[in-house]
Amino acid sequence: VQEEKIFAGKVLKLHVCTMEGAEWLEEVPEDTTVEKLKERCLKHCVPASLEDPKTVTHHKLIHATSEKVLTDTKTVLEENIQDRDVLLLIKKRAPPPLPKMADVSAEEKRKQEQKAPDKDAILKATANLPSRNVDRTVAHHNMRDFQTELRKILVSLIEVAQKLLALNPDAVELFKKANAMLDEDEEDRVDEIALRQLTEMGFPESRAVKALRLNHMSVTQAMEWLIEHADDPTVDAPLPGQTPSEATAEASASSAEATAGPSSEAGGEEAKDELTEIFKKIRRKREFRPDPRAVIALMEMGFDEKEVVDALRVNNNQQNAACEWLLGDRKPSPEDLDKGIDTNSPLFQAILENPVVQLGLTNPKTLLAFEDMLENPLNSTQWMNDPETGPVMLQISRIFQTLNRT
Asked: 68 - beta bridge partners?
């Protein structure tokens, strides 16, 4: 045995194929570079083509099993090619031709034609058009005035409903039933898709429900709340209105009413006080909660925190509208939100004279609906679809629209 054969590298037998269907075996030492192997393959299948030095660079070898393009400068061993492996020799795709200057100019011209006109171009093109005197700012304020007027109606109707319900000897018991119905409705209003997203993240269902209710069914805000309160020992405490202390207070209110005789003037005053406390609890249950992200974003613009909270309260947590309010005339003011409508106005008189509204004002659930819509205007649609409060809201809306058209 010759010495050079003992110490020579391992010889691999490789199966090479081309796209044209040619096949053959190449025997190469494992220290052969991929470039040398490629030259041998090209000599085998297209020997005349090697006269052009670019022929080698215009072809590539691909490892069939791994679909990897082999690097010219590496050896067969470095590319981890094994005996009997299959290689594919193919010609590289030619790069796309560079576009002609005429084509480039045409493309640029097409893009310019599709580009939206700027403000100067619009003014120039519309200079001769007759003015319609449409002021978008006025239209925006008209919409805002509509929302403000509707809110004033609700504030005044709440006062009327409270007075009517205070005359009912069974008012406390009715409120307990209405609150139970309201809580049941809130259970139904939990967004199932949002709840499933949070539970799939690993949050407990009861905690996820609480987070969604506190954040107006926003998954993002609810998730932030859950993360922020993960170590809070009171995170699983019931929401306001569902706490044992309030349940006890309501029970005591009911027992106080039961012990007080309806003919007793002192008992009537005591029941009235209990109702006042219930009204306060309802209002506390509907406290405004500003969107924390909107607060931070508006404060970063330089506004004071109290101004930002007022702006978000006036504009129902809508950041863009709140920003416009802060930069504008700031109408309506936060104080205007608690003002009612003129009780002597034709609009309010027409609402009170409607039989459906009169009947609805004696239902505690209507009062709870009004309170909810004051703090959460987005819930108006839900109350419109409620079989008890929907007819009342429909009549108020019709009367408002009719009188504003005349």
From this structure: 63
